[in-house]
Structures are given as structure tokens and as C-alpha cells.
Amino acid sequence: MEFWFTEKQTERFGITMKIKRTLHSEKTAFQQLDMVETEEFGNMLLLDGMVMTTEKDEFVYHEMVTHVPLFTHPNPKHVLVVGGGDGGAIREVIKHPSVEKATLVDIDGKVIEYSKKFLPTIACALEDARVDVQVDDGFMHIAKSENEYDVIMVDSTEPVGPAAKLFERGFYEGISKALKEDGIFVAQTDNPWFHQDLITNVYKDVQEIFPITRLYTCNIPTYPSGMWTFTIGSKKHDPLKVEATRFHEIDTKYYTKDIHNAAFVLPKFVQDLLK
């Protein structure tokens, strides 16, 4: 008997993949957590029935959420990742030699625990000496921080449950306060096929807080529609004006210097969401 998993990405559309076996299933204090082994994408983390990451395509998301802001900032030393308990963003952050401390704040310790067990190639840097892992509410962590971080990355789930408040204007205002005077932040902002209003609203909020606001995209096959967006807010440094000398050699599978710039070239229907 074959076992297939379907994520209903809307009421009328979903993505389906063949499952070898269930590795772990648990209702945590915050969400339903499932680890499964798939035929096509290797081990996969699901939260509340939504695909969070897979061994096969995770590098796209994690490289794009981290390297775009980290190459834009001229000297990122202290970096914060809100969410991201699977550890993929942290793994990419510490590839940058300027980073002295990378703080991870995830509200659900179970995500961290089972990512270490079942996603070791993704969570491999969580024990690094430069990494500070905190099981805490990222929203409250931001609220208590001031002039502390060079770069902040919001590696959240979709805007449901405990992550909903991470898409609110007040949260972005808190991020601005938590950043240093030339700080940069980036947040994943879903896809432009099914969540146009979210992209429009977040972009508008960020644009009213940060002098420089940009949207960029990448391709992630297991995320809704395959086309994913990130919104970047910067106090001083423009990701489209990075000096060529800033791009040092780094071990990546998706991100390159050319991809950095090309990711900001948007199809017209996406440009129209920002007007």
C-alpha cells in the first residue's frame, strides 16, 4: 500500500508526495510537529501540516534568507535569527567570517530537538561556539532588544498560530529598534500567487519604517507555488548597491553574486503588488 502526503496550500490547490515512513509525530505546546521520510525530498519537517523544510531543497531558502542581507551589510558581527529552529539559517550565517555571534530564538524547543535528530545536515551548526540557541518567544525577544543586532532574519512559519504576530507592523517597528544604526532585516513573505495581500501589506509597513525596502524572490519546489518572496528592510545599505569586492567566496548551492542581483528583478505582476 502506498502512502502519500498532501499539503493543501489553498482550499483548491495542494502539493503531494510519496512517503516512505513517519519518523516522529508529536503535538507540542505550540503546534503539530511531524518528521517524515519522503521518496523524492528526503526527510521533511511538517508543522501543522505545512512543509517547513526538506533535505533536498532546503538550501535554496536558507541561502537566500541569509546571504542576501549578510553580503549587503559591510561588517555583520551580531546576527539574530527569529524562528528557524531547524538550524539551516544558522548554518549559513556562520559561513561569514565577520560573524562573531549568531543568536537563534525559536519558541518551540521540540523543533530544535527533532531537527538535530532527523535533519542533521541542516541543524549541523547549532552546537558551534559562536551560536547562542534560545528557546523563547521571538516577538518578546525583539521587544526587549535595542541597538543590538547588525542583521535580523525572520525565519518564521506562515502567518498562522504563534507566527501570526511576526507579520505585524509593531513587530517590524521593534526590529528597527533592535537593529544598530546601519542594521538590516529580512523576512520571508510567502508567495505572490496565493498571498498577494500579505506581500502588499508587509511591504507597505516595512517601507514606512525603513529608508530602503526591497522585495526579492527564489524558487523552492516544496513551498506553495514554488515561487517565494523575501522582504528586506535596511537603514542604510542598499542590497542593489553592494560593491563587487564585498562578495567573497562562499560554499553555496543556489546563491551567487549574480543571483544576488537577479533575485530583485521581479515579474510585472509582482511589481504591481508593491505599488
Automatic annotation (TrEMBL):
Membrane-spanning segments: none
Any coiled-coil regions, as ranges: none
Binding site for S-methyl-5'-thioadenosine: Q31, D106, D137, G138, P162
UniProt-listed Enzyme Commission number(s): 2.5.1.16
Listed pathway(s): Amine and polyamine biosynthesis; spermidine biosynthesis; spermidine from putrescine: step 1/1
Catalytic activity reported: S-adenosyl 3-(methylsulfanyl)propylamine + putrescine = S-methyl-5'-thioadenosine + spermidine + H(+)
Residues annotated as catalytic: D155 (proton acceptor)
One matching Pfam family: Spermine_synth
Binding locations of spermidine: H62, D86, D155, S156, T157, E158
Domain of life: Bacteria
HAMAP family linked: Spermidine_synth
NCBIfam families given in the database record: PRK00811.1 (NF002010), speE (TIGR00417)
Quaternary structure (record): Homodimer or homotetramer.
Role of this protein: Catalyzes the irreversible transfer of a propylamine group from the amino donor S-adenosylmethioninamine (decarboxy-AdoMet) to putrescine (1,4-diaminobutane) to yield spermidine.
Name this polypeptide is given: Polyamine aminopropyltransferase
Organism annotation: Alkalicoccobacillus plakortidis
